[in-house]
Amino acid sequence: MAYLLNGSKLVASSKLLSVFERDPNKGEELVHELCDQLLDPTRFEERSDRIQWLKALISEDETFEKFSTKVQNMDSSPFCGCVWTANFVAYRCRTCAASPCMSLCAACFERGNHEGHDYNIFRSEAGGACDCGDPSVMKQSGF
């Protein structure tokens, strides 16, 4: 099936999806075959478009915005999942916290109702992760 790399990215990603729907094991084999072709270090010079191909195969050749929306619609996790590095601006709501180290990203803080709460805004020194949706560090009323 490596011949798929000679045609259109949209056709190849549609074919890959079709194979996965019929036979997930065969789909997995095809992914391995295509990745072997695209990521073969001895052939890097031949395939300057390998990153575009990998993106197209993963996203069904959708734009980043459409693919991102699709992935977000599939996520049913109550956890935010935002992870940040040093100097990220985050929030801590002491009213909602079940732990003094609870932190929220700006999006979760703004979505939550923290009006009248005891909170502070801080710049992370070493990085961190949003605790929204985690009942072990945050009261459920806060998310």
From TrEMBL:
Pathway: Protein modification; protein ubiquitination. GO terms for cellular component: cytoplasm; ubiquitin ligase complex. A zinc finger (UBR-type) spans 78-143. GO terms for biological process: protein ubiquitination; ubiquitin-dependent protein catabolic process via the N-end rule pathway. Its EC number is 2.3.2.27. The keyword Cell cycle does not apply. InterPro entries: UBR1-like (IPR039164), Znf_UBR (IPR003126). It catalyses: S-ubiquitinyl-[E2 ubiquitin-conjugating enzyme]-L-cysteine + [acceptor protein]-L-lysine = [E2 ubiquitin-conjugating enzyme]-L-cysteine + N(6)-ubiquitinyl-[acceptor protein]-L-lysine. One of its GO terms (molecular function) is zinc ion binding. Ubiquitin ligase protein which is a component of the N-end rule pathway. Recognizes and binds to proteins bearing specific N-terminal residues that are destabilizing according to the N-end rule, leading to their ubiquitination and subsequent degradation. SMART domains: ZnF_UBR1. Keywords: Metal-binding, Transferase, Ubl conjugation pathway, Zinc, Zinc-finger. It comes from Ciona savignyi (Pacific transparent sea squirt). PROSITE patterns: ZF_UBR. Belongs to the E3 ubiquitin-protein ligase UBR1-like family. This is E3 ubiquitin-protein ligase. Residues 78-143 form the UBR-type domain.
